[in-house]
Structures are given as C-alpha cells and as structure tokens.
C-alpha cells in the first residue's frame, strides 16, 4: 500500500523537501557561475571541455541553474523549470561526463544523473500542494464549474 494514500499530504511534503533541496543545489551552481567565475571564465571552462557553442551554453547553464533553481525552491512553473534543468544536466552528461564512468571523484556522471533524474521527476510530478503552483492551480480548479463538488 502506498504510504501517501494513508497519510494526507505526505507526497506533497516529499515534493516540497525534494524541490527545495534540489533547488538549493542548482541555485548554488548557478550563483557560482555568476558570482565566483563570471561569464568569461565559464565560457573558457566550457571551451576547454569542448562544449559546443560555449558562450551560449554558458549563458544557458548559468541562468537556467540559477533561475530554475529559484523556481523549484518556491514551487513556481516547476514542470518548465524541471524540464530546463533536466536538459542542462543532459548536456553536462553528454558533453562532459559520459566517458568518465559513474563516480564524481573521477569526473563521472553520478551527480548530473541524480540531479537530472530528480529534475525530470519534478517536471512530471509537479510542485505539489505546498508551492506557488499549488496555490495558483488549486484556486483555478476550485473555480472550474465542471469539477465543482
């Protein structure tokens, strides 16, 4: 039996905790690119890793990680944020980590796989009840005459 069916809101609490944890990691990585490295250093790093369109990829990676990470934390536009972050991690996997094995200590893909998998999970599952999305969509659904009880 699914524990979420026995305990009301349990899955929503799980989505909240997961969203915030994942969002913090992505915001930290985006902020590091913005504040510590700067765009030029990120471009150079990407060029050194043979990431295609290094400047555009650096902008995408930096701002998606930062803004979509914030979106996860507050639970706003989570399906879109999750999808954009999963694409970011797919690029990191494909262009940087795939040939290095699993383990992060060997520059492997375990972190990008976990982050990308969690991002796509949120993209498909949504933000849950304790989120901006939950507030907006619960109000919209309660005004929908077809679904009124």
Shape descriptor: globular
| Order of helical and strand elements | HHHHHHH
The rounded Rg comes to: 18 Å
Helix content: over 70%
> Could you give a short account of the major beta sheet?
none
Description:
The chain has 149 residues and is an all-alpha fold. It has helices spanning 3-6, 10-37, 39-48, 54-74, 78-97, 110-125, 132-142. The longest helix is centred in the N-terminal third of the chain and has 28 residues, at 10-37. The chain starts with a helix and ends in a 7-residue tail after the last helix.
Summed up:
This protein has helices at 3-6, 10-37, 39-48, 54-74, 78-97, 110-125, 132-142.
Provide the fold topology.
Elements: H1 3-6, H2 10-37, H3 39-48, H4 54-74, H5 78-97, H6 110-125, H7 132-142
List the main descriptive attributes of the protein structure presented here:
149 residues, mainly alpha, 7 helices, 74% helix
